[in-house]
Structure formats: structure tokens, C-alpha cells
Amino acid sequence: MGAVATTTIAGVFLARRGLGKPVGSLTQLGTIRLGKRTEGRNPKINELVPLANLEDIEFGGWDVFPDNALEAARRARVLETEHLDAVADELKAVAPMKAAFYPEYVKRLSGTHVKEAPSKYEMVEQLRADIRRFKQERNVDRVVAVWCGSTETFLQQTPVHQTIASFEEGLRKSDPNINNTLLYVWACLKEGVPFANGAPNLGVDIPAVHELARETNTPIAGRDFKTGQTLMKTVIAPGLKARLLGLNGWYSTNILGNRDGEVLDDPANFKTKENSKLGVLDSILEPAKHPGLYDDYFHKVRIDYYPPRGDAKEGWDNIDLFGWMGYPMQIKIDFLCRDSILAAPIVLDLALFMDLAKRAGFRGIQEWLGFYFKAPMAAEGLQVEHDLFVQQSKLKNTLRWMVGEELITHLGNEYYD
Ligand SMILES: NC(=O)c1ccc[n+]([C@@H]2O[C@H](COP(=O)([O-])OP(=O)(O)OC[C@H]3O[C@@H](n4cnc5c(N)ncnc54)[C@H](O)[C@@H]3O)[C@@H](O)[C@H]2O)c1
Fold it and tell me: How far is the CA of 3 from the centre of ligand 1 (A)?
């Protein structure tokens, strides 16, 4: 019931009444070219593949605070009162279930609306019961989970994360290497519920989860929504690389004043975010393949909590690049964005595409949804793809492939025979 979740929920309610546009959502507004350019076939994505309709969606969630979605959205101060008032009754009806919350992973929060259990294993069992109850009470056929909870402290993989057996043993012993996110992941996968991780937290990336996802035929995706600054990075960096312009340094800083900013003000939580933000450039620029251009640049990322800004984040980038004969140049980006406004369409798309993936028989890592993440996932040993436009082609080709349409290679030599 944080800023991102409530902005998504309210937006879907508004969109289905025609009171607002789901801007930024591929599933609602995107089109897809099919066949040759001369054929003129460009259906909407939601006409090509059978996605759930907005009218059929029910929302549920957990939070460490008892506020319903209306109260939480008012507190988050992302959407204006006139928007919230228009769907107030529907928002009020979305009340959070009690959270599985061990506070050591998010020290800046002290919630009261939390479950109690003798072990983490029992905690997972309670979450599973919540999911089953939700399904029954709302009379829904299928469930999908998108993590919109806080960023947790940085955790590394340990032996407990390696197999289903070691993980379940760890749950019984309430192993400290199992964070809150992993409790939800485990509960969802056990129930066959696809799980997308919108935060940088250790969650769907561990071998035990991959094993369980395969065993239960459940799709997983992550991690950390690609929204403001990283979105810009994955647009600009591939452009510089395509023209082989060199890079001396990339300095990125953000100010934001929402609760996410407050949580990230704790160095242990920031470290989780920093790791997810730093990986992007190296993976796009491939320093080892480009000595002299990209093997000696300085990359710095900062986030500063600045309460007056609320959700209206400002992300600055200073890029020191060089061109022909090594002559230096600079690019400055000042993105006056809105965190949750950029994240909401991603949450909706992930929910609909993960549901589609499950029905299509996909399981495990959904690499084609890497388009939506700062730290996308790939099979063990495979280099991950960060370039937004390669990710977009992959996503669209996966949709074409799903319905037996020809894949598009952009070769196009047949037009010149
Ligand atoms: N908005 C963006 O642009 C963006 C981009 C990438 C990632 N994210 C991530 O998305 C997440 C949500 O962002 P936000 O701005 O909505 O933050 P927020 O602080 O407004 O919301 C997070 C919510 O999670 C709840 N929570 C924390 N631990 C929980 C638990 N164990 N169980 C249930 N609820 C729990 C908190 O009480 C809070 O209500 C954050 O992790 C953020 O880093 C956001």
C-alpha cells in the first residue's frame, strides 16, 4: 500500500471509468507490427495476445501499516485529491492484510500491522493462507504478485539460498539470511502465483527460488523497476556506444522526499539500490571489448533524501564523454520526474504479462520482461541485456512467437529485390 502500489491501483480504477489515461503502459496503449512493412498490420498488443481486462482485476496486498488504499494514497500525495475522490469508494475497499515483517531488514519502518509466527516457515504458511483466502473471497481464477514493498538491506547469497531443501530448513530455523521479500516469494511460488520483484531486494534471484519456480511451473521476473534515471541511462548509453563515443565519467544524483527516499537514506538499504543501479553501464558498454573507450570511466550514483520534493524526484546526470581525437564533451540531463507515475504502468504491465506467461506455460526467469527492470535477469552464465531497445525487440518478438507470427529481424532486403 505504498506510493507505487496505490498509484497503480487508483490509476486502474480511473482508467476503467475513462477518467484517466494509462500513459506509459504497453499493454494498454502499445501496438505491434506484424509481418512485412508493406502489409500494414499493426494491432494493439492487447488485441494480439489474450491479456486480462482491466475490468476483471481485483487488488489485494499486505502492509505494515493498516491504512486502506485511499488513506495510503492520500498520504503518499502522488495523485491529486480530485483523482482520488473520483474512485474513493473503490480505494477504501482495498485494505491491506497484515504483513510478514521482520524489522531488521527495513530499520526506518516500525509498523504495527504485522503477523506473528513462531518461525519464518509458519510466516510463509500464513501468507499462503492469505493468498488462498483472497482468491476465494474475491472469486478470482488467477493471482499474480508484484512486489511494491520497501527496499530492504543488502543481502548476499549464502548456502541457505541454494536448494529448496536448504531454504526450507532455513525457514524453520528463521535464518537471518532470509529477508521479508523471500517469505512472500516462497509463499507465492508454493501457491503457483507468478512473482515480479519491483525492488532491488534479494528475492527471485536465488537458485532455490529458480528450482521452486521450475517445480511449480511458475514465472518469475526481477528486479527493481526501471523508471527515472536508469531508464534515461539505458536510452543514452546504447546511443553513445552505437557511435563509439568514449566515456570518462558518469555522475548521477537524485533528490527525493517520499517514504522510499527515507528508507534509502539508511546506508544498508541504499547499498541494495546502488548495486542495482551501478551494473547498468558496464553491461551496456562492455569495457573488455572496447579498450580505450569504456574501460576507465568513473561511475557514481547518489540518492539524497530531501523531504520537500515528495514523490517528485529530480535526477541529474553529468556525462563526460569524448570524441574524434579524444576531444572532451559533456551532456547534462535534468529529469524532473515523478517516481510513482513512472512506476505504475510497469506494475500493471508486469501483472498482465506475468499472468499471460503463466497461461502460456512459461516458467522460471522471464527474460523477455527484462525491459521493465534495472537489474534484469538471465539464465545462469548468460550476459544480461540492459539496452532498452534490444529489450523491447525481445519483448515484442516473444509476443509474436507466442501466437505463431513471424519474428521481425529488421533485415528488410526483400523490399529491394
Ligand atoms: N517509484 C519508482 O520509480 C521505483 C523504481 C524502482 C523501484 N522502486 C521500488 O518500489 C518499492 C516501492 O516504492 P514506493 O515509492 O511505493 O515506496 P513506499 O515506501 O511508498 O511503499 C513501500 C511500502 O511497503 C511497505 N512494506 C515494507 N515492508 C513490507 C513487508 N515486509 N510487507 C508488507 N509491506 C511492506 C511499507 O510499509 C510501505 O507502505 C521500493 O522498494 C522502491 O525502491 C520504485
Answer: 7
